Amino acid sequence: xxxxxxxxxxxxxxxxxxxxxxxxxxxxxxxxxxDIEEVRKKCRELGVEPKKRES
Length: 55
What we know:
The protein has 55 residues and is mainly α. It has helices at residues 8-19, 24-31, 36-46. Helix 2 (24-31) crosses helix 3 (36-46). The protein starts with 7 loop residues before the first helix and ends in a 9-residue tail after the last helix. The mean pLDDT is 87.
């Protein structure tokens, strides 16, 4: 699978992670996606807003 391709399972997982209150960085870790920008882009496409990661 090429970088940028998302399976239906990954799409459901990212939605669930964001709804559960994870940041985009945390969601990337859960999904095992190294490219956080790719995760941010997918969140925008899906219309879900990740919480801001607390420092």
